[in-house]
Structure to design on (554 residues):
């Protein structure tokens, strides 16, 4: 990875460089000169990969599969220059990076024009007031099934206390289900209106089993941080390490109460940080990942390798929990915010009393599957998303009529026949809303909202009713950006809508997302102030009906 680092606060040359950067990328100073810049140059190509032992066409970043980690610190400015050397358009999105006041940089088709083949685009991100473990991925054309994903680490600033000692090492572990077919074949199946088959295997950091297995080196007696992200396409996983316990310390930017687990359920799109101490006899141990709640159980294993290991990993793979939904729900409920720990700022995470704020609106979202014109589609509140010819954020900014309509998806289940639309739901800036995800299907759902974290205040089986609020956790619910909804169950979240923009709310079940199970939440402020939202980036790509428009001068 080509990364360069520029700190602030010293030397005329540095000051001139910062001024030039602000002029070139942003048009004016949107961030303080004291916030450091990190520069990345990424070359995106196709290349041969063999994760399941057969040759496939994968997406490489700087020749790597998976892609390189992004290392950053709270409030860093990330300047990521992406060269698209694929023969088709390409986009990268940043799962969990909130893009404060700047949904133009979100990297999904509803906000950002794709990078044309043979061209480049420079993303300008700031990890404003964030810490934690996240990941990036390609968001267009089912590219996610070919790779192009990698980890994002946002560390606390040096003067901000962290509620655990510095680990001896910090590993990214990307787990995901995988097909032996190339992504274009999978895309073709979906384009024909058919469901995808069950995946062929599981990857751990892009590797399968056997001699190809991933390995993580530890020194006896030391403690390590593992950042585990499920970058897969549909399945929930159970993660465990032979002979070792895991202490959960962080979930998607929130320091948690430090609970110890023998295994951890990681649903698609989710990220967790655990501490593991190498306190066992010196040998190798299995790291095991297996699918949850599937008729056919897929397994993969990596190796926890003690540096003074006397023997290879032996014995059967450690068994995971039974397919007991209650076990998984109880584990999810046990994940809570550490109220006394600092987050990205020095004040305690519990200083924001979300449970004392009045709800201004309740939104209920129900997922469904069905046929439209004889083809498989998936919907939210009976509306299956149909992409427009122009990114919605550009149409909104340039006031281009006919691209989308606010209110094209209802905020309650309608019970109507499934239909196609470019679904956009309106919401008021600074509203405090409750969203209830209803899942009446026999699958585990996983929902993600760009631009935000939300408090997961409740989840249970059956049908949500207003009386269900009596069981909400209004004190220390975990704040995160991706939540699961169990079969025939509901999950409720609270969100403070403090980030103006056009934000994608989607299932992380990627075939369903591709076939319509998503929409955009337009968080709107009538003021039009740069205090609420930045103007369009000067280097923004323009496509569709936005071609020929101008961004802005210096």
């Amino acid at each position: 990875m080509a990364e360069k680092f520029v700190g602030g606060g010293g030397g005329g040359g540095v000051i001139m460089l910062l001024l030039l950067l602000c002029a070139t990328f942003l048009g004016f100073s949107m961030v303080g000169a004291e916030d450091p810049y990190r520069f990345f140059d990424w070359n995106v190509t196709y290349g041969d990969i063999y994760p399941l032992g057969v040759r496939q066409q994968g997406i490489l970043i700087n020749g790597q599969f998976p892609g390189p980690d992004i290392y950053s610190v709270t409030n860093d400015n990330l300047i990521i220059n992406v060269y698209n050397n694929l023969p088709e358009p390409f986009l990268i999105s940043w799962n969990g990076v909130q893009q404060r006041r700047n949904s133009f940089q979100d990297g999904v088709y509803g906000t950002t024009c794709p990078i044309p083949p043979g061209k480049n685009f420079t993303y300008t991100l700031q990890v404003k007031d964030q810490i934690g473990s996240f990941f990036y991925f390609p968001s267009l054309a089912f590219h996610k099934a070919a790779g192009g994903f990698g980890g994002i680490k946002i560390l606390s600033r040096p003067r901000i206390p962290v509620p655990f000692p510095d680990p001896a090492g910090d590993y990214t572990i990307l787990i995901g289900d995988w097909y032996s077919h190339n992504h274009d074949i999978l895309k073709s199946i979906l384009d024909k209106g058919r469901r995808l088959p069950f995946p062929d295997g599981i990857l751990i950091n892009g590797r399968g089993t056997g001699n190809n297995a991933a390995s993580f080196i530890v020194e006896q007696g030391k403690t390590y941080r593992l950042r585990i992200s499920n970058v897969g396409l549909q399945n929930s996983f159970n993660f465990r390490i032979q002979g070792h316990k895991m202490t959960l310390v962080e979930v998607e930017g929130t320091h948690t109460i430090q609970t110890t687990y023998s295994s951890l359920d990681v649903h698609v799109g989710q990220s967790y940080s655990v501490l593991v101490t190498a306190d066992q006899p010196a040998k190798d141990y299995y790291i095991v990942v297996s699918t949850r709640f599937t008729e056919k159980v897929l397994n993969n294993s990596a190796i926890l390798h003690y540096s003074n290991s006397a023997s290879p990993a032996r014995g059967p793979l450690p068994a995971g929990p039974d397919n007991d939904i209650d076990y998984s729900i109880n584990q999810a409920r046990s994940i809570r915010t550490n109220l006394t720990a600092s987050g990205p700022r020095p004040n305690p995470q519990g200083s924001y009393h979300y449970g004392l704020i009045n709800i201004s609106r309740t939104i209920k979202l129900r997922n469904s599957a069905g046929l439209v014109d004889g083809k498989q589609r998936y919907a939210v509140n009976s509306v299956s998303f149909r992409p427009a010819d122009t990114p919605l954020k550009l149409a909104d900014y340039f006031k281009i009529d006919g691209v989308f309509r606010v209110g094209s998806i209802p905020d309650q289940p309608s019970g109507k026949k499934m239909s196609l639309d470019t679904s956009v739901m309106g919401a008021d800036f600074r509203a405090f809303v409750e969203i209830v995800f209803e899942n009446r299907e026999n699958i585990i759902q996983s929902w993600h909202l760009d631009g935000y974290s939300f408090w997961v205040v409740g989840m249970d089986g059956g049908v949500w009713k207003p009386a269900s609020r009596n069981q909400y956790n209004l004190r220390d619910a975990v704040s995160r950006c991706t939540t699961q909804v169990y079969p025939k169950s509901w999950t409720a979240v609270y969100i403070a809508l403090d980030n103006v923009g056009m934000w994608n709310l989607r299932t992380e079940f990627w075939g369903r997302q591709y076939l319509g199970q998503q929409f955009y939440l337009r968080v709107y402020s009538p003021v039009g102030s740069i205090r609420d939202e930045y103007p369009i980036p000067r280097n923004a790509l323009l496509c569709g009906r936005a071609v020929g428009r101008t961004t802005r001068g210096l």
In short: The two ends are 31 Å apart (CA to CA). The chain is about 10% helix and 40% strand. Helices lie at 12-26, 183-191, 325-334, 392-398, 510-514. The CA atoms of residues 224 and 473 lie 31 Å apart.
